[in-house]
Specification:
This protein has about 210 residues and is mainly α. The chain has seven helices and seven strands.
Length: about 210
């Protein structure tokens, strides 16, 4: 017997808050990229073929908001590409290889859902720091091109400009908490690629017995 589920939907207020967090990420990214001297223009690599896992229901729901705004023909094409991605990535992982497959949202080198792209897509590239809830400090070096620039201009890597992700991540946690509310204990941890988020459909939550 299948367990009834309902879709997790972002309210208009939470959608606005998430959009504001994303805007803050973009502003921080642009500032650090300018200070470091990083630009994607002319780069031979494409970060959209990187294997990223995403971890929030709020971003999953926001992604589906964007997908539903697309023409049906385009959404079907994206879904078909996502299914191919999932199969190919599982084959590579089974061989202990890290998948390097183009994101199903990428068309001609551009994101087909740019406004609704996820956190990692917005922040990957530049040096960044973060303080975890347990107080441990972390530093991320950025993409390969950024690391080359940093090595050339900053003998001590820690001297390079870096974006502090901590406050924006804290805001993301607050949005996630309000979205799930008292159903958080029913939810498995998200650890999915964008392709898997597309193939699985929008996020859902089991309906407690008392609500059926």
């Amino acid at each position: 017997m299948s367990i009834p589920k309902i879709e997790i939907l972002l309210s208009a207020e939470l959608s606005r808050e998430l959009a504001e967090i994303y805007a803050g990420m973009e502003a921080g990214y642009d500032q650090v990229a300018a200070e470091v001297g990083l630009t994607c223009q002319g780069c031979p690599d494409n970060c959209c073929d990187s294997y990223f896992l995403h971890h929030t229901y709020s971003e999953w729901a926001y992604l589906w908001q964007g997908l539903r705004q697309l023409p049906e023909e385009q959404r079907v094409a994206i879904t078909d590409r996502a299914k191919e991605y999932v199969v190919a990535s599982k084959e590579k992982l089974a061989r202990n290889e890290r998948p390097q497959i183009m994101c199903p949202l990428n068309f001609g080198g551009l994101c087909g859902l740019y406004k609704h792209r996820l956190l990692v897509c917005r922040m990957h590239g530049i040096p960044a720091t973060m303080t975890r809830p347990d107080g441990q400090s972390m530093r991320f070096p950025g993409c390969f091109r950024c690391q080359e620039i940093v090595e050339k201009h900053y003998p001590q890597q820690e001297d390079a400009p870096a974006m502090d992700r901590t406050p924006l991540f804290q805001q993301m946690v607050a949005v996630e908490s309000r979205l799930l509310g008292d159903k958080r204990h029913l939810m498995p941890r998200v650890k999915l690629t964008i392709a898997e988020m597309i193939v699985q459909g929008p996020p859902t939550v089991p309906v407690p017995h008392c609500e059926r």
